[in-house]
Predict the structure.
Amino acid sequence: MHFKRTYTFVIGLVLLSSFAVIQSSDMTNPIQLLTTQTDYNVGYPVVLEFTASEGEKPLLYCSNSYGSTLVSAKAKNDTLQYVIPYNMTKKIGVVNWIVLDKNKSAAGQFNINPKAEVATMETYIGPPSIEAGGTDYTMLVVIPTDSLDNPVPTNTKVDAKFQFLNSEEKDAIFTKNLISYKNIYSKKESGRMLVSSESLGVNSKEFTINVWAAIPTDFKIMAKRPHNYADGNQVTTFNTSVIKDKQNNVVSDGTFVTFFITNGIGNILKTTGTTIEGIAYAKIIHPDFKDNWSIKAYVDGMAESDTITLNYQSVIEDFEVAFANKNREILVGPLQSFMKQMIPDGLHVKLLIYKDNLLVDTITKTAFNGYVTFNLKPAIYKNGSYNFSIETAGTHKTFNNKKLW
Amino acid sequence: MKETSNKYLISAILLALAFHGSAIFFTLETTYDALIHLFFADHYANNWFEPWNYEWYTGFTVQSYPPLVHQSIGLLSMIGGLKFGMFSVALIAIVLFVTGTYRFSLMMTANKTVAGYACVLAVFSSSFVETLHIFGQLPSIVGVSVLMHALPEIYLWLKTGKKWYLATSLSLIAVTVTSHHVTPIFGMVFFIFPLIGMVIMDVSREQVNTMKEVTFKLFLNSFFKLFKRIVSFGMLSLVLIVGCIFPYWLNSKANPITQVPIPHGSRDNFLEITSSGLVFFLIPWGILLVLLPYIFYRYYSKRYLFFGLSVTICTILGTGGTTPVPLKMLGETAFNILTLDRFTLWASILSIPLMGEFAYRFVEGDLKELIQSKFGAVYHRIIGGILAGLMVFMVVFTMSLNYFRPSQPQKIKMLPIVNFLNQDDHDKWRFLTLGFGDQMAWLSAQTNAMTVDGNYHSARRLPELTTRPIERLENSKFKGVAGIGSLQQFLTTPEKYNLKYIFSNDKFYDPILYFCGWQRLRQLENGIMVWERLNIPPVSSILPKEDVAKWLKIHWGIMPFLTVLIAFILNIQMLWVNMLKTRFKPIPEFLKFPTTYKKFNRNVLRITHIWSIILAIVVFYGIYLFYLKNDSQRSPENAIIAYYDALDFKEFEKAHSLIDPNNNIPIAQYMLEISVTDGLLSSYAKMDAIETEITKFNDSTVSAKVTTQWITPLEKIEKIDYKSLSKRKGKWYLQPDDLNNDLPPDQLYSANATKYYNQGRRRITTEATHHEDVLKQPVLEIVSAKLVHYDGSYAIIGEVQNIDNVPADVILKGTLYNDDNKQLATYNAKYHVKHKLMPKESSSFRINFEGIAWSKTQDSIPDTFNPDEFTPVEFEEQPTKFNLQAAGNVSGSDLYKNVVLSAITIKDSIIHGNLFNSGIQEITIPQLLITYYDANKNMVWVDHLFVKEGVRQQRKQDFEYQILKDGKVKIINSDMKNIFVNGLPNDAIADKVVPNRIENHSDAQLQKIDHPDFSYIKIEINTYIGSPN
């Protein structure tokens, strides 16, 4: 039972003690700063000294741009010493402090200044590709930093170095607001520019800027073909002259060129090519009938070529048609080309079938060994009288009132 | 009397473990459901108490499925991995099922031998075999097995009123609830209600001398006598059903299943769709079909009357859409949510005791005597042989179903995919699988990466998914236009879902991926092609989730195993008693009502005979019809269907055998001719329907007009072919088609091209890419853009040019606003743009605003799904302004430009033309972009055409394009103010690169057409290369 009494006693004591008032003297002297230095070099120890008062040891609150902390005092020979922690003194900038005594009587600030030494070069450059001609530019930003990763003092000299074609240049720029930067304008020529920077004997790594040619200017086109017959089989190749921009740089590889071909009846054909070393090649198959082409090439919205014309001569002036097997088998051929050789396989031959002057069906077949055979199946084409028209290579023949039975 | 071990039961358990236990290793992983349960198990193994899963459907809760089986697998996976867990649980399920049928049968028949027969036969019950080995429904099996264990306990509680039995029965009900939610609910109706009826019958029976004397009045009296027990049991089990999986019910209420019903085979008309009839009716019933008269006869005896009703209802409901009855009984909603095959499963399980009884009576009982005395011993043996043979056949047939008709693609090695996802932060984006089947769940179980898809469709949340009758995006090609339509909406706007990678196991989807702006990354060593889309932001590190209260999480995590634990403690004593006979125990009440097997009813035997004959006739008639339909050369129709089927499934040897042998085309030549045809139709189409119209000429020659419908990844194609067929020696053969004889001019030729390679990160490091390795985004220029309205739909059209010096991948995103600047719809350019542009290349584009583009998705989707059909409903929702964002990214792939428009003629508003392939790659699918201009050469519309055939190197391919029908295009807004390229204003960036643009430069080169509304067109060509080399 006596435990209970003990507990009551202890709890009573605790309760009583909370009402106790500590006597405080109102006659303390305000704390005063003794240290006069307000500028320190980064990385060096900073100690703030204050006048001491009556065994009081208030905390010192200090803050810089990275954060805040509390520092406790050390009493020494009637003075209070506050050692600012290293993680504050290793960052440059302003440090604000305030003594947390009753009246907050003392407050102030000191500066931590950068070292004039460079340990690393933080370098950024962009965009990594620009256009030749002197208007487009890329921006080099260099931030030399000391061993504590602080930017160096304002107006530290940074050498920006460029290599482009045959020239190697060096430009002095100076740090301001912690960084140094330079806009690098392209030259007239396209090519590759290497960029680096140096400050106080420390060099950055190498950066690459591609200077591409600007937009293309007008160009010429040419055509090459094995013969000028419209055999529907050989391939004509168009090519451009070397396409250049207005500074005479060859446009970048892969530039897309469209060749528009207007044929004899005004329809538009087209083929495309991409440049290699400024020259674009585009191919097109020969027409299978006599035609006149006028060709013009474009880089859409930017440049165009002259117009050239090509003529294709007809290879088949006439062909024979034979009907057999109740007129249900139609043999077209021989289809002969310009030297009387059999036309290469694949020439389209079209059979148009009319019944009562109405188009019933169109059958397209390809020539094989110079001939084409059409078989008119009795299940599809009932017995009766039909008109046939056979078209190939731009010519056609008509046969009226052929009876199928 | 000392009890002896039931040798039938022991042999049944051993047999089941040996047979099913070894078979599951070959079947379970290819079943429909097993891998889904594995995925859930993986979730529990990693986050036992956290119900939210981020990996599927942009997040869903696992509280949408009862957890016991999943948690068991998850717990066991700690020992030997997920698959170990799954197989262990499957083995436990097998044992539970066999012992469950034994106890159920014993209760029903009160005869240990009969129960022994029943459980041996249950091992080979085709419905069990199917549920386990084809469907893989482990929770369902565990649920129904435990329910069968519970039935004798319920009987004893109702009969004796001993509280101990109430406890045991409720404990088992609780386990059933936590393993499967549907089983106890319907189990109440189909198992427990008839059981209550039987108990009342038994109690009534005890008051009189024979069953005949049980009258309705007596029955009612007994019912009132037992009323308290029945009600107390009913109420308590209701409390358990709700309480044990309370979070499930809470979640169902919070997220009700408001989705468009997904078609399921069990709802089909089994006579029309015979494959569904086979899987959901014939197989689960199996040998029981023969015994149906006996089963109904026995179950409609007085004692079992209520079981009779239950079996009848289950049987009828199990017939699905064959008769209108199930729809009427269940109502529209329930009919469309429930899979009806479970009713057949329950009917077959209810029949198991009687199957045992029949077997007993046939093998050593009165039926044997009856048959032997009437027909002789040989007949008895033959019948026995036939029945046993049928049983074995059904088992073998069911087990091998997956072998002959695989429901899943070949097993995919997941390791390369898992490695790919782990590599280089690829799991920071969502992925999608195509053509994986249910194996996608296994992939999800192995990786932390998330997918937009999922495999548990009840948990889907995205309206894009729930408004479609699509189970998964993954297998959308099997769902026709709706499936492909749904998939392409995801492929067109993947940034909405942070979807960057697609693993494709099916080349069918390649064209749609390409034309939606995706590019091939590489093929993994397991043959899976990885596709990626550029300009997709990664998944944010904090994702939204629907959190639930902590107590619900703890409830969900603890309750299932708690029920098992309690059931174990309460029933283990019974188990010991039953299995090991350690202690004498009074005979259970239900053994006091044995049936005497003295005299088998002759009429039943007669009816069974007649029934069997009817069944046999039906089966043989079915086989005959099957033969008629499949004898490919019996009729010209059959020959054509067989030929097209063979082509569809790439069985060229079979196709060749249907070609008229008189043409003397050797298979080598035929294969050559087939192999040179490539393109959308021959390589990427799936035949949907075929219709033949035969014109007979004479008995041995016909011509046929064959109209085929093809589903391709890009569009639905109707194709009309004319074929002629000849009859040779009573068989019909097709005449071969003519070949295209086009002969290219060169044997060998060269082509130079600029190729690009993007290093990506130049340094091998997992750090963020160094800034100097980040390529500049290519500068694009939107040369023109306008908002137009044509033919009932809104679109942004215009022209985009790559004005940079490197090739660009182009993504165009359009947003529509109304007069109040309210955002109405946003969508990306899909088919109507060349997604890859060379330097200085331009492309016309059109952005459609399809169903999901609109903010009010639900409203804008029409009932009959057509992805291109969309109109805002309300008037104030009409768009008047637009915003266009173009993003360029450097891309070195799919830059083949060597395609030439080599001939063109226009006649009767049809454009005929030729494409010529001048390069060195085979073009698989050429696409034409046709831009329409008005009389002032103002661009007004963009249309497209996929040419059905490919173009081989140096060859021509003709095409035919129907010019659009009359219709004025209304230009709503052509203000170019709100256009941005890579986030910068279009005007400023364009002025800098091309200050002196020649406006409307190639206007002189537009093709004139004769049309009332349009005056000019421009044709651009885009190409898909199926296999670049």
